[in-house]
Amino acid sequence: MRPMNPRRKARCNPRFLLNSVDLLGREIDPAVLSVAQEIAPRAVSHGEKLLGDPALAISLFEEAAATVSKTIKEKEASGKPRIRDMRGYLFRTYLRRISVERKAHLALDDATEEEWQKQARQTDDSDIERQILVKELLESCDTLTREILYRKLEGCTGKEIEKFCGIPVNAVNLRFSKALRRLQRTVRAGGR
Amino acid sequence: MPLASKRRKKTGRKSPTEKALLGYLKQRLSNDFPNPTRIGCPPLEALERNAKDPIHADESVSKHVGRCSPCYRVYSRLLREELARIRQQASRHNSNRDTHKKNKKVVK
Fold first, then answer.
1. What ipTM, to 2 d.p.?
2. Regions of chain A where pLDDT drops below 50
3. CATH code for the structural domain at A123-192
4. Which of A77, A190, B51, B87 could be a cystine partner for B78, CB 3.0 to 4.6 Å?
5. Host domain of residue B30
6. Subunit contact A144:B54, Cβ cutoff 8 A
7. DSSP string, A88-144
8. Which one of B18, B33, B61 would you mutate to disrupt binding with A, by most A Cβ within 10 Å of its Cβ?
9. Residue A106: its pLDDT value, please?
């Protein structure tokens, strides 16, 4: 058997073909998209190492590209100077987005079961407030996210929800983790 | 240190926090919104439609489920039935595939 070569060159992978619209439905400017395509193989593999999830890494990269597109438009509208180094700017935006995502995940992992039960007990004191908070949380979600949440409550996995809803697993997970974060904030706010 | 060991392990188990949060939300939805006279509740057919086709779910019905505990309990049951059906289909599909493979091996 031939030994594996650790210094094998990375080839351009077709899985780095990006969408022109991110998961939140924001368009990516063609100029930004072409730069994003160029740096995608290295940037996304770096993101994958940090996040441990290739699908999430690509989704966040598309989000970063959409954010940069929006910033460019805003800069043009307000007459501010252009971005000189688009590659660097996009990569930094992507790293910031990754760190936000990681912090959110770590915060979720750090809290123990007891802490959450304590929070829940604290909120038991104010029934009406709690009702309003849960109602607000569900009403702030769009219909599809709400339906995903209802299915997760019944113990559905991402793949099963994909079969139910016909949307990719990474989109399901992204919507669900956002809703979960909002719920976490709601519970914290209610516990105060 | 190899990169693979740095990555987070992916297990099928939910983290305790996620589980606790979901448990909290489920408990709140099932008990905190009593509606004994069933004011404004949609018909069962509407709930069934949402359970079967979440992509084209009726927004008003979906919102109502989130603020009416009796409807949430019905909807929860419908979802569990739908989930059981999907799991049954998947297991049947898998067993069919296995028998196909075995048959192929026998032919060889």
1. 0.76
2. 1-14, 123, 192
3. 1.10.10.10
4. B51
5. 23-34+42-94
6. yes
7. HHHHHHHHHHHHHHHHHHHHHHHS-HHHHHHHHHHHTT-HHHHHHHHHHHHHHS-HH
8. B18
9. 58
